[in-house]
């Protein structure tokens, strides 16, 4: 029998796969299904981006480089400067990636010494599971910190005992946050940075939802650095910003010493974006109008669902940004409520899919169209009024 990597057994498969299988079964009968489960909205990728990709498709195909095209690094740096007022050197402080998931997964390989005393990786839970999987496959120990509504679903490194900080090599931050939609301000970033620096901890901010805000633009960890980026990285992505989940394009930005290390590591991995995707990414980073338009679409969907949840007294927590709404499951059992909603042809993600700290909560991803959100809200309301769903 072929041996197996114990990390595979430890981590298992996609925790949302069960929900998707059920949703697909329901979809097979051809009746309307309102799918709020997976964070992959239906809005088309803007034409300016698609055109850039098609025009870059030449007759000859060559290996892309891990360092990426200079024009792409410049486009990322230009966006950072316009959006965050942070000037980064495109040659030494930016490396493109194939989306942020693989960047998150592979990053510990450049930092974590599996034999060393600092093998732990801190991240907030409920949260995006790739912080844990990248850690475990790199031979480290995932050390999730439970987030709470009382603390605004924000990690507080200063609340952790020093031993826990000293055995860790990376602390992941993620705001706007998946799954809760919680935001963080610059003071919070400064506080985390100060604690991380006091303990020689690399702090990495997963900023893939940076552009999906509704009240105030979400800040970047890099804004909190005041020029000194030692031990600091931000991971950005075009997936959510520009409707490019299928293209796979993002970047890691920050500490030049770490970016140099990633330039050594990443050619081993083979995840450089194809040049035509890089061309599309340049067009995407250089255009802001489509991002502002997308935000308004999510704002409209959000308003429909918030109104419905408010009418039925369902508590919404976090949910200030991202295209997620995070609600307390009426009756207290997220899995049972998500299943009852499935009978109404509404697909949601039970909060426990994002870790034990998510139990009792549900995540709604604003995937259906505004009309779809209205129809789903009506079906949901009818089920509450008909006694098929528990009251909040
Ligand atoms: C918090 C968070 N980080 C990273 C990702 C990965 O996104 P992508 O690889 O498409 O950039 C996701 C995807 O849903 C996410 O929710």
Order of helices and strands: HHEHHEHEHEHEHEEHEHHHEEHEEEH
Overall mean pLDDT:
95
Silhouette? globular
Give the CATH H-level superfamily of the largest domain. Type I PLP-dependent aspartate aminotransferase-like (Major domain)
Using the coordinates shown, work out and report the CATH topology of the largest domain.
Answer: Aspartate Aminotransferase, domain 2
**How is the largest sheet built, in terms of strand order?**
2-8-7-6-5-3-4
| Approximate helicity band | 25-40%
Hetero groups bound?
pyridoxal-5'-phosphate
Just give the CATH class of the largest domain: Alpha Beta
Find the structural class using helix and strand composition: alpha/beta
Number of strands: 13
Sheet bearing the most strands, described? Answer: 7 strands, mixed
Number of helical runs? 14
Main traits of this protein?
binds pyridoxal-5'-phosphate; Aspartate Aminotransferase, domain 2; Aspartate Aminotransferase, domain 1; about 400 residues; 13 strands; seven-stranded mixed sheet; alpha/beta
What would you say this structure looks like, in words?
By secondary structure, the protein is an alpha/beta fold. It has two domains: 6-45 and 290-385, Aspartate Aminotransferase, domain 1, CATH 3.90.1150; 59-286, Type I PLP-dependent aspartate aminotransferase-like (Major domain) (Aspartate Aminotransferase, domain 2, 3-Layer(aba) Sandwich). The protein has helices at 6-11, 17-27, 47-55, 70-84, 99-106, 130-137, 162-166, 186-198, 239-242, 256-269, 275-285, 289-311, 334-343, 370-385; strands at residues 34-35, 94-97, 120-125, 141-146, 168-173, 202-206, 232-237, 250-254, 316-317, 324-328, 346-347, 349-350, 361-365. It has a seven-stranded mixed β-sheet with strand order 2-8-7-6-5-3-4, with helices on both faces. A four-stranded antiparallel β-sheet has the order 9-10-13-12. A hairpin with a 6-residue loop joins β9 (316-317) and β10. The radius of gyration is 21 Å and the shape is globular. The N and C termini lie far apart (52 Å). The model has no long low-confidence stretch (mean pLDDT 95). Bound molecules: pyridoxal-5'-phosphate.
């Amino acid at each position: 029998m072929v041996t197996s990597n114990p990390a595979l057994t430890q981590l298992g498969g996609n925790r949302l796969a069960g929900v998707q299988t059920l949703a697909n079964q329901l979809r097979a009968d051809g009746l309307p299904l309102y799918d709020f489960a997976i964070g992959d909205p239906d809005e088309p990728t803007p034409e300016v981006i698609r055109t850039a990709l098609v025009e870059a498709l030449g007759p000859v195909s060559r290996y892309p480089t891990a360092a990426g095209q200079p024009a792409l690094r410049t486009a990322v740096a230009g966006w950072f400067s316009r959006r965050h007022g942070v000037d980064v050197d495109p040659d030494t402080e930016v490396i493109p990636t194939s989306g942020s998931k693989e960047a998150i997964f592979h990053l510990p390989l450049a930092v974590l010494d599996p034999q060393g005393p600092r093998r732990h990786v801190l991240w907030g839970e409920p949260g995006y599971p790739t912080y844990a999987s990248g850690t475990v496959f790199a031979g480290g120990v995932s050390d999730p910190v439970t987030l709470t509504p009382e603390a605004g679903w924000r990690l507080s490194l200063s609340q952790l005992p020093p031993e826990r900080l000293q055995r860790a090599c990376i602390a992941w931050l993620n705001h706007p946050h998946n799954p809760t939609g919680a935001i963080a301000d610059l003071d919070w970033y400064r506080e985390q940075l100060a604690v991380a620096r006091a303990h020689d901890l690399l702090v990495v901010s997963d900023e893939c939802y940076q552009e999906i805000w509704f009240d105030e633009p979400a800040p970047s960890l890099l804004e909190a650095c005041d020029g000194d980026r030692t031990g600091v990285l931000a991971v950005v992505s075009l997936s959510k910003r520009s409707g490019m989940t299928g293209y796979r394009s993002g970047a890691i930005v920050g500490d030049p010493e770490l970016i140099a290390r990633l330039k050594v590591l990443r050619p081993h991995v083979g995840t450089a974006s194809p040049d035509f995707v890089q061309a599309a990414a340049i067009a995407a980073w250089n255009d802001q109008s489509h991002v502002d338009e997308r935000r308004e679409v999510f704002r409209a969907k959000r308003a429909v669902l918030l109104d419905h949840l408010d009418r039925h007294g369902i508590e919404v927590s976090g949910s200030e940004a991202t295209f997620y709404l995070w609600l307390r499951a009426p009756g207290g059992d997220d899995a049972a409520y998500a299943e009852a909603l499935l009978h109404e042809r509404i697909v949601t993600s039970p909060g426990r899919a994002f870790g034990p700290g998510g139990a009792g909560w549900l995540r709604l991803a604003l995937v259906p169209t505004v009309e779809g959100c209205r129809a789903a809200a009506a079906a949901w309301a009818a089920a509450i009024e008909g006694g098929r769903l528990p009251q909040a």
